[in-house]
Amino acid sequence: MGSNINSRTEKLFQFFWSAFFVIITVIAMVPILRVISMSFSTKEAILAGKVMVWPVGFTMEAYERALNSGSFVRAFGYSIVLMIGSTALSLIMTVLAAYPLSKKHLVGGGLIMTLFVLTMYLNPGVIPEYLNVRDFGMIDTVWSLLIPGALSAYNMIIMCNAFKGIDSAIYDAAKIDGCGETRTLLSVALPLVYPTIATLGLFYAVGRWNGISDVLYYINSSELFTVQMVLKQFIESINVTAEEGIQTNLVADNIKAASIVISMLPMLIVYPFVQKFFTKGIMIGAVKG
Description:
Elements: H1 2-39, H2 43-47, H3 61-67, H4 70-101, H5 109-121, H6 126-135, H7 143-146, H8 153-164, H9 168-176, H10 181-192, H11 194-210, H12 213-218, H13 227-242, H14 246-286
Protein name: Carbohydrate ABC transporter permease
InterPro entries: MetI-like (IPR000515), MetI-like_sf (IPR035906)
Transmembrane segments: 12-33, 75-99, 106-122, 142-163, 184-206, 255-274
């Protein structure tokens, strides 16, 4: 009798939790669906307030307007190349910092790790960072978008813990087989922490793709503008024009929605390929072995 009551209670508990998360998911999806619907809807439908989660009067006008900008396609391609290069550089630096710090016998390893952790709490601010970038001659160069934020202390700690989670017997076996530290890292350690690498790669890629503050601070040449910056300028120019009349403002809302959808596409394409590593990668790096 008692076991039946416990079973019913557990099922009821699971039902309420499942219903709760379904409701949260729907609430989170509604704004996204509305933006997508607005991007495919007509100006008249937006004016009438008919657009909610389904397009009204399907049209591609907003996307045509967004893609007709001569600088947009160039900025989109440039941003993809920049994202790939930035992610690769960040992963290399993260691995090279985390692997030696995962070794217990590293002299001064605790002090170095403490310095990394301090950078997470002691932010120098925008002006000192700008002065550093300027003094190194990186203003208005692609290096200002690559180097200053190339290494995340938080991601490095996750990677370090992933390396620590590898059984020491595996390292000992590699050493007996004649592997040096470089060979051990490349042939033994990296394959074992691949899920963590994939997960951190996604973190770095999303951060670079969505990043716009460093472009605002360091870049003056339009040739180095990322797609986020081009979209920002595009929307701002429409907003200026929108002051002339209501109809122009409707077009602006339409194109804003299309711009948001376009900016989401690369991450929506990449995430399904990385998703299977996501939970495992975080768990491996979050628990010290």
